[in-house]
């Protein structure tokens, strides 16, 4: 899931040793900065996922709005299975229940940047994850 997950994805994919294909999907939330608003699809997959085993790779699950939209969209395409992997999980902020199958780290309600995660498109290139100070 673009764009924040690509740094995590590039590490994760090298740790997966079963045959796997790669594709990208872009979902944007209308809000900028630290608040996520309504979500929409801005770039679609090239792959037809019907009958395929799909693993969604996400940077962080916050309110759950992005992933609930994505899961609903992808489920309608009838994959053989659909699993979710997220590097970070902020359960305190959840508004929509989301079952994350594989979680890297559960973190407190802080806005984090780096390792692909941005603030207004900045800081994605930081080689670590840090907390934004207000
Ligand atoms: P949700 O739809 O779950 O509220 O938000 C998911 C998206 O919001 C993530 O993919 C990420 O782009 C953004 N997001 C949520 N929390 C954070 C955070 O702490 N730092 C950054 N940089 N982005 C976040």
Describe the structure.
- It is a single chain.
- This protein is α/β, with parallel strands linked by helices and 134 residues long.
- The protein is 14% helix and 27% strand.
- It contains two helices and seven strands; from the N terminus they run αβββαββββ.
- The protein has a three-stranded parallel β-sheet with strand order 3-4-5, with helices on both faces. Strands 1-2 form a two-stranded antiparallel ribbon.
- The protein is globular, with a radius of gyration of 14 Å.
- It starts with 5 loop residues before the first helix and ends with a strand.
- The mean pLDDT is 94.
- Guanosine-5'-monophosphate binds next to strand 3, helix 2 and strand 6.
Largest sheet: 3 strands, parallel
Query: Low-confidence parts lasting 5 or more residues at pLDDT below 50?
Result: none
Number of helices: 2
Side-by-side strand order of the widest sheet: 3-4-5
The helix-and-strand class reads: alpha/beta
CA radius of gyration is: 14 Å
Q: How many runs of DSSP E, i.e. beta strands?
A: 7
The outline comes out as: globular
Q: Name the helicity range.
A: 10-25%
Which ligands, by name, code or SMILES, are bound? guanosine-5'-monophosphate
Q: Report the order of strands and helices.
A: HEEEHEEEE
Q: Give the percentage of residues in beta strands.
A: 25-35%
pLDDT averaged residue by residue:
94
Report how far apart the termini are.
27 Å
